């Protein structure tokens, strides 16, 4: 049963006779190479050969002075870097020659580095920072794809130039950051000293506040004292006025006293003379009295001594008479007093009458002193008047000073509070500036060069999954699918989708389908094998799974052969070839082999969901590129889904072909006389 199913009948044997049938068979097997081999080879790596694309490069940069005062020619540096990396085949030329070359087709496009390129590159530290620009001239007459590739290439140039210029700019900024860091260190030191000074000032402000409070209290006392002083000055002024008046009167009285003293001196002299005379008479009377009393005393003494009776009484009487004489006469005490009076009168006459006497001298000095006192009091009166005015002014001044000291006390308190805040703020400022200074990047030498390189090229691409494939490798799944479907389409231009002899012999419809399918499958496997040999052996596709690629291509060819057989069997060879071409075009645009389906219209996205070529592209991507991503253990489900979907397509195609074969047992009029033959 199985060998009968696999029997190819006479379909293949008819290509062994003559010359043209074998050539036709070989041609059918080789035609898919146009898509599966030639297309892949032609577009294998156009991006990798961009360095052969002639492009005009014009350096019009005039240079500029850098921030350090040195001459900077960024344009020359960019040209050197582009010539070194050579992303394109740059040709240095003039601006006019570049434009003429683009028009004439000598260059695909032209790039000019403008005159202010260096000035713009160094403007980051100026008052007018701006970006550097490149002038690019395209000519669409040179082709759309070259223009598109050139546009992408200019982006590569921009990245290269940004790296060169950005490194220089970043280096300048790093130098500035180092300067800023040093300045912030100095600022931090200054803030620290400010913090220390603020603390000292805070202590001084506290003392100032305390001192101003004490000063305020003392000034209040001083004001009270000044007020009392003013009152005392007024009282003193009045008292000095009164004393001045009294001193004037005293001087006048003493002057008159001096004159009267002179007159008293004359009278005192006369009195002294009279007293002398009285004293002389008194002395004489005293002598006479003594002479008179002496006999009486002697007689009494004798009487007592005589012992005569009655003599003692007589003696007592004589003593009494003597005592009475002295008592009523000039006794020694009275005589002494007269002598004292004489001496006093003489002394008084001397003091009052002699201008050189102590008294007269004292009176004269008193007169002179009283006159000086009057003059001094007059001057003192003037001074006391001024003192009164000054004391009043002092009282007013101390009043104002006391008010000012109260304001000073309030201000000193505010100053102390402010200095407390300043102390806290300066301490925080010092900490933050120190912290900020530590965060300012400071690079020197090789580290600065590395930092400038990192800053000028902040983003670099690191492919952690898979490297980007060449253009041809990326399109190979699409072109292989296209080639195999084209091969399956053209083979039924010489092969019959269903052998009529098999149908006429009465075999089962599916067996009749296999009788035509197996020769076509043999051709399809041959097509797949030729394409695989060219891709792997000649072009160097280097698939991830080479043997898997060959098996997949053979299986996909088997499915496409079944699909094209079914189409031709159902609608006929003429219409089937047209429908196959239309179906191929629809599959191509909806397969996702070129652009993601999400970027296409909704209808194409709907077709993509059941497009057989979509599943063949998924299988070929898996065996050519692979999906092994480092760090991921997930499995790609799309190949398994694609195999199941293609098996379903194969089953549907065989079913339709079998139905068509069953219906083909009846020859229709349209089969005898088709309306159109291709």
Automatic annotation (TrEMBL):
TM regions (residue ranges): 20-44, 471-495, 516-535, 547-571, 578-595, 642-662
Limits of the ABC-2 type transporter transmembrane domain: 25-160, 474-624
Subcellular location: Membrane
Broad class of where this protein is predominantly found: membrane
GO terms, molecular function: ABC-type transporter activity
InterPro entries, per database record: ABC2_TM, Phage_infect_YhgE_C, Phage_infect_YhgE_N, T7SS_ABC-Transporter, xxxLxxG_rpt
Keywords: Membrane, Transmembrane, Transmembrane helix
Gene Ontology CC entries for this record: membrane
Mode of membrane association: Multi-pass membrane protein
Source domain of life: Bacteria
NCBIfam families: pip_yhgE_Cterm, pip_yhgE_Nterm, xxxLxxG_by_4
The name this protein goes by in its record: ABC-2 type transporter transmembrane domain-containing protein
Source species of the chain: Corynebacterium frankenforstense DSM 45800
């Amino acid at each position: 049963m199985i060998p009968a199913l696999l029997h190819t009948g006479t379909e293949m044997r008819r290509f062994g006779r003559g010359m043209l049938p074998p050539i036709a068979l070989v041609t059918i097997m080789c035609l898919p190479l146009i898509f599966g081999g030639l297309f892949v080879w032609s577009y294998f790596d156009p991006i990798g050969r961009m360095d052969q694309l002639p492009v005009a490069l014009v350096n019009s940069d005039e240079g500029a002075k850098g921030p350090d005062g040195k001459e900077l020619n960024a344009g020359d540096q960019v040209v050197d870097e582009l010539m070194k990396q050579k992303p394109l085949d740059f040709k240095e030329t003039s601006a006019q020659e570049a434009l003429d070359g683009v028009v004439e087709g000598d260059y695909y496009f032209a790039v000019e580095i403008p005159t202010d390129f260096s000035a713009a590159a160094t403007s980051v530290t100026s008052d007018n920072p701006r970006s550097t620009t490149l002038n690019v001239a395209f000519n669409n007459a040179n082709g759309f794809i070259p223009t598109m590739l050139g546009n992408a290439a200019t982006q590569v140039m921009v990245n290269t130039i940004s790296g060169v210029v950005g490194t220089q700019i970043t280096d300048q900024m790093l130098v500035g950051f180092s300067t800023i860091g040093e300045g912030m260190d100095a600022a931090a030191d200054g803030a620290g000293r400010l913090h220390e000074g603020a603390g000292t000032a805070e202590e001084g402000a506290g003392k100032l506040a305390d001192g101003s409070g004490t000063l305020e209290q003392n000034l209040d006392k001083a004001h009270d004292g000044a007020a009392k002083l003013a009152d005392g000055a007024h009282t003193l002024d009045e008292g000095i006025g009164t004393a001045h008046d009294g001193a004037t009167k005293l001087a006048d009285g003493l002057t008159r006293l001096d004159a009267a003293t002179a007159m008293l001196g004359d009278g005192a002299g006369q009195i002294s003379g009279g007293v002398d005379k009285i004293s002389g008479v008194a002395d004489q009377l005293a002598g006479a009295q003594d002479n008179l009393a002496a006999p009486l005393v002697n007689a009494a003494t004798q009487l007592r001594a005589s012992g005569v009776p009655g003599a003692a009484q007589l003696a007592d009487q004589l003593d009494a008479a003597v005592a009475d004489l002295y008592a009523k006469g000039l006794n020694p005490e009275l005589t002494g007093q007269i002598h004292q009076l004489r001496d006093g009168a003489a002394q008084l006459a001397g003091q009052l009458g002699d201008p050189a006497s102590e008294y007269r001298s004292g009176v004269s000095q008193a007169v002179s002193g009283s006159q000086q006192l009057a003059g001094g009091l007059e001057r003192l009166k003037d001074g006391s008047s001024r003192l009164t005015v000054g004391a009043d002014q002092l009282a007013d001044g101390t009043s104002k000073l006391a008010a000012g000291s109260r304001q000073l006390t309030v201000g000193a308190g505010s100053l102390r509070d402010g200095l407390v805040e300043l102390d806290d703020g300066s301490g925080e400022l010092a900490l933050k500036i120190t912290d900020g200074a530590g965060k300012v990047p400071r690079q020197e030498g090789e580290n600065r060069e590395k930092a400038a390189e990192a800053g000028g090229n902040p983003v670099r691409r690191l492919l952690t999954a898979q490297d980007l494939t060449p253009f041809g490798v990326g399109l190979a799944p699409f072109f292989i699918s296209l080639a195999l479907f084209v091969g399956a389409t053209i083979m039924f231009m010489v092969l019959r989708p269903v052998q009529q002899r098999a149908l006429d012999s009465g075999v089962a419809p599916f067996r009749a389908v296999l009788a035509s399918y197996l020769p076509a499958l043999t051709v399809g496997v041959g097509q797949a094998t030729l394409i695989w040999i060219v891709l792997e052996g000649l072009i160097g596709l280097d698939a991830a799974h080479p043997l898997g690629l060959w098996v997949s291509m053979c299986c996909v060819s088997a499915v496409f052969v079944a699909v094209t057989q079914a189409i031709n069997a159902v609608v006929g060879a003429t219409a089937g070839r047209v429908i196959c071409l239309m179906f191929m075009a629809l599959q191509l645009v909806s397969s996702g082999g070129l652009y993601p389906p999400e970027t296409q219209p909704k209808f194409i996205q709907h077709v993509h969901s059941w497009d057989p070529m979509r599943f063949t592209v998924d299988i070929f991507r898996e065996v050519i590129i692979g999906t092994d991503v480092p760090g991921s253990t997930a499995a790609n489900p799309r190949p398994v889904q694609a195999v199941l979907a293609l098996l379903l397509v194969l089953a549907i195609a065989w079913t339709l072909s079998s139905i068509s074969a069953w219906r083909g047992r009846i020859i229709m009029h349209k089969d005898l006389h088709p309306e159109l033959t291709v």
